[in-house]
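Comment on the following before class.
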Amino acid sequence: MMYNCNELSDRRFLLFGTLLIFLQTRVLTSIKLHTSTISPLDTTQVLAVEGHQSFFPCDLTPPNPDEAVYLVLWYKEDQGEPLYSYDARNSAWNLGARWSDEFQFGSRAYFELSSSPAKMRVENIQKHEAGIYRCRVDFKSAPTRNSLVNVSLIEPPTSTTIIDFRGQEVKTIAGPYQQDSIITLTCVSSGGDPSPQVTWWKENELIDQSYEKTYQHVVQNTIKIGPLSRSDLGTVLTCLSSNNNISVPVSSRVTIDMVFPAVDVSITTIGQPLSAGTVYILSCEAAGSRPDPIISWWLGSDELNGEEQVLEKNKDIVKSTIYFTPSTKDHGKVLVCRAENPHIVDSGIEDSWTLTVYYPPRLNLSFGLSMNAELIDEGKDVYFMCEIEANPEVYKIGWRHGN
């Protein structure tokens, strides 16, 4: 995970403030070590982070301008043999020979003369290397100078894990959640001595720092966020765990995923009268659904499964197009376009259109109900019935006989 320098600086400062107070209660504020040269000695406190670079200061300033540094020896606690030396007895003081005990720091240690005070730089310092170190400085003729460095080791946290309310690990994507949901996420941090601070960040904003220690070397922070709105889609939540301002905080991040129902559905074809037997192109648009909705067409209570559907998408609008051939029986029926998100129960919405189907007159000519075609005699009255079905209704009826 990448942060810019300003973000890391702000976050480390926040996390480090409480830590520094805590550590100062754990280390000795003044350690006295009796030596053969000066007794007692004050101690410089150094906080080092395991696995990182550390610096042990040693004052090489001569007591007067005529003096020069001849030999610098580093010891750990009560060890009788030095673990590092800088020998300038046979050269200029800044061109001395460096030696490091291969069974202790080895090549990880280097004595830097350019800084003030001079410092022994130790790379990749380890937990067992915490303790009191003595720097002995021998001058050309002035008395030997001894100084102490008390190195306290900080073990950074090793990992963070985000889990949901069911106790399942959330790796990169949290969700999908529905609108108005309230989500619960817990960040569990493992390792670290002293115990780290575990904080939640929403994008670059600190939103929660109410962590608690649950088991040895386990600290957790639980947040609740919601009710969620559409604007929360894609929000990045980051959990940071840190107990120092040197190492990069251990972190985990998740992105909120959401599902939305369609907010609008509309049959976009102009609702003009249709002609029976003519092929029409009907269109319907659904907006706002995530993921894309299922769009279905219905005529009355029957789904139009036999009609081939063409789908198009433009941003969050899905357009469905079908070819429809109305019949005379479809007049007065309700055509429905329905959009539903399959991930959300009862999320369907619909738009409807009551069909007006035009068709030419259909005639049925028959004798009157009281007439028997086989008993018609010349000179008697004959009655005929003309049944007409048409839409719109006929406005003129005519009778013809013969041609």
Q: What stands out?
A: Helices lie at 5-26. Residues 1-39 have pLDDT under 50 and may be disordered. The CA atoms of residues 128 and 153 lie 9 Å apart.
